[in-house]
Amino acid sequence: MIAGGATAAHAADEPSTTQARATIWNKQSAYGGVMTVRFFLYEAPAEASRIDLLADDKLVGTATEDPWTVTWDTNAYPEGPVRLTIRTFDKAGQAWAEAFDTWVDHTGPTLPVDLDGFIKAGGEVYVESKDKSGITRMELLANDVVIDTSQASNALLHWDAKAVNGPAKLAVRVYDTARNMTEYRRNVLVDNDRPVITVAPAAGSYVRGKVAVSVTGVRDASGLGIFEPSIDGSSFDSRTKAPWSSTLNSTFWRDGRHVLQWWVADRAWNVTVVDRTITIDNHVPKVAFGKAPKNKAHVSKSVKITANASDGYGVARVQLLVNGKVVATDSKAGYTFTLNPKKYGKKFTVQLRAYDRAGNAKLTEKRTYHR
Fold this sequence. Notes:
Layout: E1 2-3, E2 6-7, E3 21-24, E4 34-43, E5 48-55, E6 58-63, E7 69-73, E8 80-90, E9 95-104, E10 113-114, E11 118-119, E12 124-128, E13 135-142, E14 145-150, E15 154-158, E16 166-176, E17 181-190, E18 196-200, E19 206-207, E20 210-219, E21 224-231, E22 234-235, E23 245-249, E24 256-266, E25 271-280, E26 286-289, E27 303-310, E28 315-322, E29 325-330, E30 336-339, E31 347-356, E32 361-363, E33 367-370
Parallel strand pairs: 11-17, 19-25
Antiparallel strand pairs: 1-2, 3-4, 4-7, 5-6, 5-8, 8-9, 10-12, 12-15, 13-14, 13-16, 16-17, 18-20, 20-23, 21-22, 21-24, 24-25, 26-27, 27-30, 28-29, 28-31, 31-32, 31-33
């Protein structure tokens, strides 16, 4: 007779109305260690006289009274598949047998833990555990006290939300269906403080071309773990180790004001965000001679030379160059210089160069003077 997918064997003269039948209470997909196997009589319990448990046809133990239990030391069996048979006898000597396939498991779950030794109050610990017989429970412990649990094989467990700064002991325990346990332990540093940083370029800066965007002067107990700069909400890099510096190619953005952001997280995942407004200017200023002797003029005494300079975001300075060398600088609008020809020989060249606030430069044409 076949009942519920199990194999049954009984005496030919079986009085089916009184025959006792038993099965295992809470069958498991795997067994390990020393197990107490409990039987459940689901038919004619008053008629039962004996229940045998067999593993691969080898007698494990016999129960003769309530509570119907047998102790099975699975350590006597190699790890692998095993067929369990429950054989029930009633008072008339009739037998009923039920069998099912399961697994002997002596190996604990795998337990990789993604953690580098730093954590904050309420921080997450990701656990991804595997076991051929299945995971029943995982636990996260802080200083040997269970603070979070899960019945999943992959889970985010959460550290003590009231943890204070300083050293602590962390442990993760994972149990499989066969009650094998694997434990991971390490000392950690609790860090609840956001990083304190210095950034460059400074707020209000005028920039051009390729711009160094950096984090310096870091003050943090656990140290930086990641730096992600962005401009106008668009990230353009991600760094996970020092030096904490990146390069922004400003030519990809239009000239004008933009918001540069420094997003950093320390190794405990405390986050600091700094926003600074900068001005991008990738266009050169305009500059021309104002009052000055004409090209190829004869100059015998000191003369005034002025410059006309302009830029959409402001001129920083104008320089006077003689024979290609800077001889004077003026940073005030009006840009006036005094040229003494006696310092430069009988023939020399003069130019003006203007710089805007972003450092873009523009040179005028050369004028040649004679003395």
